[in-house]
Amino acid sequence: MTLCAGWMLAGLYLDGWAHRHIPNLESFFTPWHGLLYSGFFATFSLLGVTAWRNHARGWPWLESVPPGYRLSLIGMLIFFVGGLGDLAWHTLFGIEADIDALLSPTHLILAVSGTLIGAGPFRAAWHRPDSGNHLIAQLPMLLSLTFGWSTMTFFTQFAHSFVRPMASGAAPEAWFYPQALELAGILIQSAMMMGLVLLAVLRWRLPFGSLTVMLTVNAALVCLLELRPGFIAVGLLAGLAGDWLVFRLRPSSDRPRAFRLFAGALPALYYALYFLGLKLTTGVWWSLHLWTGAIVMAGLTGWLISYLTFPPRRPA
Q1: Which residues pair with 46 in a beta bridge?
Q2: What pTM did the predictor assign?
Q3: Is 134:207 a contact under the CB 8 Å cutoff?
């Protein structure tokens, strides 16, 4: 299921790359759509055969889908309807471009249903007893969580620093809106990243390498959209730093101070590495006050998200 979800996600990101780099893309029937929808049918076939085999062994149909995958089955039904709707939408209104393609109603239906499908291994792992604290045992869960996160980053790429690094290079003539958009993107991406990372930290004792996998895979996918491979190093180094923080701080519900410190430190390190990368390559036209303040804001966002994922105990 994890491989099939990755198959679908690869189709999504390649389709996004095509929309950004191939002008006059005027057909629904493209290799990238083929990759996306063939991944869907592979996932549907896998889950359908599993349900059929369990039913043949005596399980009722409603219980033949393994725990954690019922929402994936619902997502497949929604995805199928959304795919037909997407074909009709393109036929009636043409092929979208830029932000229009991200906010098309049929594309948002595919986004929600695809996330439900891809998160199946994560939900299944949540309901199972822990299978071990080594990285290989946790890998399907980690990749499933990463694929869900990467779907979110795909549909918010208009506010993602790796896609549009507006702080790099020389200052534009109109500087307010580039600054505001990049700052908003830093807050949005920090909140999404930490919401999912903290969910995993509360449920599992993550082995070293877990965050390296998550942040590197997500960065590699996002960098594909504009072919900016240098930012993959930011995800890799931030993931290694996050794994070190998990090892040293041991954040958990039993250690709330360590949990909140980790929640603030990881996004701050992530964007500190981002601005360091810009400094070493294209340069940063922002003032010292602004880019250091952006790093602090990223950390504060993660710290506040920790109160949503793990609120303080209510008094008796």
Answers
A1: none
A2: 0.89
A3: yes
